[in-house]
Here is the input.
Amino acid sequence: MPTIKSIEDLKKLREEAQKIKEMRDQTGKTQIVVGMGTIGIAAGARETLKAILTYIEENNLPDIILRQTGNLGLSGMDPVVKVTLPNREEVTYRNVNPDMAQEIMQEHVVEGNVLNEYLLKE
Amino acid sequence: MRELALHILDIAENSISAGASRIEITVKQDTRIDEMCISVKDNGMGMAEEMVANVMDPFTTSRTTRKVGLGIPLLKQAAEACNGGMTIESQPGIGTHLVVKFQESHIDRMPLGNLSDTFLTLLLGSPEVNWVLDYQINNEIFQFDDSEVKEAIDGMSMTDYRVIEYLTSTIENGIEVTKQNAFTKGEKNANDQID
Here is the structure.
């Protein structure tokens, strides 16, 4: 489908997505959460989230649920990014800058390999 | 924080925490009266009077618990340093309306910064909220209400790459065109960057 330029295009897109969704429902979706408390924002969480959005857009990933949330209570670790692949345990990354975010998207979300060096060790 | 847009993001987070289902963000830059006004209005749980005083001035008021961070007092201080100020009107069960004003041309006024990234973060990251943006520079206006988009995609993920692409270009262009128009109409001094 070509670039979406209007609300009408969006409606058509939804109809197509509906058909694909029925096939995909069994596998579940990947969830990504970015902590967006005051400290997270000051530490660059908006830019981290934007890098993830840009990755999704440039690589045409259709089925990612991206969320932002308030303070995750992990001070000194911001920006914090949590990734949950379908049927896998949640993984938490710390001090994620935009470059790391793109790397996490490529290595973990697309390829399925956890990046141990960026993990938050609790 | 280096940008007013980051403060807006921070304030809006409070509205989300307050359980708001509709959040309206207004940014008005008026060079004719030399004022910049930012407002965040929500229909969340609201606060009692004492709580409002508490979030605005956490060090002089007695506090027991505080869910809201230091973002609000920091922004208030920044506004007061620029011949402006902050007001919060809030009613339990009705919602909260925060307004912050700056002297637009004040040398210490933070730049607005990346308003589109702030709005996209909120819109895409908290899709259960109805987001409204109203951006004005003098007579130029850009308004965006996400309810039409949500109706069109009806249950599809907001973070589908095509939806992201559509929203990003719509909001970035809307803000950019508003700035350009205000600039070319000479309502801003030719040497100034609108920010």
In short: The radius of gyration of chain A is 16 Å. Chain A has a mean pLDDT of 88. DSSP finds four helices and four strands in chain A.
